[in-house]
Fold these 3 entries.
Entry 1:
Amino acid sequence: MQILTSTPIALLIYLALVTLLYLVGKALAGKENPTPEKSSLYGSGEEAPTSFASPGYRPFFLIAFFFAILHLGVLVIGSGEFSFKLIPILLGLILALVALILG
């Protein structure tokens, strides 16, 4: 029974379940019927805006990288024993976070 928890076997089981779920969902979906109304923009009865509402994804990615580095750094630091070997990792983490904050 322990072989089911090994990574390759678990991946194959997961892929089989995802494929089964995909095929069941595809069978339950109705026939595609494209119309110009379905593919047009809808702005709650108003004409669609021609300008972008946000400047892009750059601010989001900066915040995402900040939290990813922060959480992975804490996991690395927390997974080992406290010793002087962690000081370079901690300094690198601080340097990466400061670089992301300053942009």
Entry 2:
Amino acid sequence: MSRNLILGALLSSLVVLAALVSFFWTPYDHTAINVPAKLQSPNGTNWLGTDQIGRDIFSMIMVGARTSIAVAFVAVGIGIGFGIPLGLWAAANKGGWTDEIIMRGNDLIFAFPSLVIAILITAIFGAGAVNAIIAIGIFNIPVFARVTRGGALSLWEREFILAARVAGKGRARISIEHILPNIANLLIVQVTIQFSLGILAEAALSYVGLGAQPPTPSWGRMLADAQTLVSIAPHMALVPGCAIIITVLGLNLMGDGLRDWLDPRLRLART
């Protein structure tokens, strides 16, 4: 097992643990306002300091972790639930009108980044975490569809697939029983990548006010609140920024390690 996988799993587990613990315990109520204690640097009472209205930043970071993880998790789930079946369907009908429609639909979605989609959705339904999930999820669908189609196409001409077709199995059954298990490693790695991108996307949407709304903490909105106070209280920007960096770094390292672990050829090439 590679060092990247171990380190990535440790960093990711740390963030997930903080999110889980926040359901039962935080040092302080993350919504509690204590104006006399505002803008305090990290100290023995408030381990990571306080913000502009005296809220405990450590508590907000813990609750913000579950916000980011929940948004990214559901958004990636949307991408998996719709993208993988579409990719398998397109690969099974390579060159046909179904394949063409799915791929051109993917190109259309790729033309609009998740931030633009979020702005459109927000203009209709209003800002919020649910709309951020929908926007990021829609953007994940073509990603998983393309990865699935690319991996499946490389298998459709293999001997064991031809044998399954000779045995009378239909395209749908072959896709589920033979294609999907053989591209599972590729999809697992892609999940970790998209999860890290989902964390970044959620932070970006919250930064511009389109993500989770107050009083729910969000790392992106914490950065937005801190941008005018960097010279006075730099910890307000450094703490959520480091939380985002640690989370994304951990997921990327874990994805890189999983890719090496699941593909022996890559592991041998690096040794």
Entry 3:
Amino acid sequence: MGTLEDFTDFIVEEGADQIPHTKRTYIEHALCVYKDLKSWGCEDDVCNAGFFHSIYGTQGFDAYTLSVERRNELSELIGERAERLAFLNCFIERSTFDPNLAKNEGPYTITNRETNEEIKVSTEDFRDLITIHLCDYCEQMPRMKRWDYRRESYRMMAEQLGGVAKTNYDRVISMDKRG
């Protein structure tokens, strides 16, 4: 498994380091999400997935996408579980992800936004996905200022996670000056 330097080298080699992403570059955003997850006390596989949380593109970001045919290569770089979490985060059909937040336990079911395949997700993986998802939101929302975008879903994620995740969510939401 690679290091943070290996991760950044990979992004640079792919030419994705200067791609715009929420008034930053793709690599700046990826590094911030990674470092934020570290500061939240997350395990390496969650932090590694956080760095690559949009590597295959997402429902909201498709300016750069690594081909899914390269999943094995990414898995070798960041670890199998981290790659799976990154893959799931990229391919979540958000309209099928959000209803799971109301469930008290898994298994959870999400839909792949490109294939429409239903994917069963364990309780541990779902919790890690909402951690990555919320951290991504907290990192970029102050720049995006799309305060109403899935606000209830992000609030539910923060409440489920509690602790540092909820504290960060509350800090970010307090920046919404609309009241």
